[in-house]
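Fill in residues.
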């Protein structure tokens, strides 16, 4: 994947250098918005960037009977929790606040305490943010589209 990113960077760098800073910022803003939308859709389908499904939830020991009706990360994928930041030189998508802590635990498969007074739990690694092949293709298409309209 890093080879694909490096190839895209080498291809796009000379083209982006010809744009003014305001044009680059506009392009980065539209790219970030489209990438956030694709990340939200991928999280909703519960897929890793390489297309494999997320590790399933562990069976919970609950006093209540019944299944868990809410999908994993249904609140994390909301636009208000996935913030965009774009400058002429970069575009970033990041989780904010408490959502950032929860996302980091799942992104890297860390240990966390699910609630007050409960024991630490090691969570499975579920990559929430990452580039898929479709995302790289989207970046190329948006860049070409932007350059033809300038």
């Amino acid at each position: 994947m890093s080879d694909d990113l490096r190839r895209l960077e080498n291809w796009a760098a000379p083209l982006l250098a010809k744009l003014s800073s305001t044009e680059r910022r506009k392009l980065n803003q539209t790219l970030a918005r489209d990438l956030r939308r694709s990340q939200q859709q991928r999280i909703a389908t519960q897929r890793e960037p390489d297309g494999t499904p997320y590790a399933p939830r562990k069976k919970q020991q609950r006093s209540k009977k019944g299944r868990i009706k809410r999908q994993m990360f249904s609140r994390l994928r909301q636009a208000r929790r996935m913030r965009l930041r774009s400058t002429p030189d970069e575009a970033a998508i990041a989780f904010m606040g408490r959502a950032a802590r929860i996302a980091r635990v799942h992104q890297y498969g860390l240990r966390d305490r699910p609630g007050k007074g409960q024991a630490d739990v090691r969570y499975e690694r579920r990559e929430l943010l990452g580039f898929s092949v479709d995302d790289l293709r989207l970046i190329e298409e948006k860049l070409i589209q932007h350059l033809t309209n300038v």
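The beta strands are 82-86, 91-95, 111-112, 121-122.
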